[in-house]
Design brief:
Length: 205
Amino acid sequence: TMTVKTDSIVLQSLYSARIEGRQDVEIYPQVSGTLQRLCVQEGDRVKKGQTLFIIDQVPYQAALNTAEANLKAAEAAEATADLTFKSTKRLFDQKVVYDLQKAQNSLLSAKASVAQMKAQVVNARNNLSYTVVKSPADGVVGQLPYRQGALVSSSIPQPLTTVSDNSELYVYFSVNEDDLLNMTRQYGSLEEAAKKMPAVKLILN
């Protein structure tokens, strides 16, 4: 025989869970080209702004040089058109010539061409900067599916890598329906049950 008595005990419930970092950022290139250099390895811890990859810069540097040359030519044409307009205006004021509109239109066209060339320079400079792929956040480098020499673009099926910010880790688990109903009955509502959730312990494999 044995004598039994009432006592208070703590019952433990086990739930499967998944662990995720603060954020996982997939890194895709913004321009197309051959992957020239991998500046990191899988598992490296990187800082925001650190260079991860370098894409072939030759065609983008050439495009920038061409755009800058076109801008200089457009600025020279604008300066010529401006001189022509000013000379024509002086003659127009002296009633020597009567067609000022043509010179004015040429000047406006030259100004528009300069603005267009400036936009092309900005675009070319941006494209060149995109050949240096940098980390958008602090974190850990994931898998590197592409190696040096691979042709990459913004439409590649897999990202160049994933930078995982694991400075904070979140554990997600789902409580089964029976436990949920029991807690709701005990505390009156889900909100109160959440506030009075008992201590949780993480057990790893």
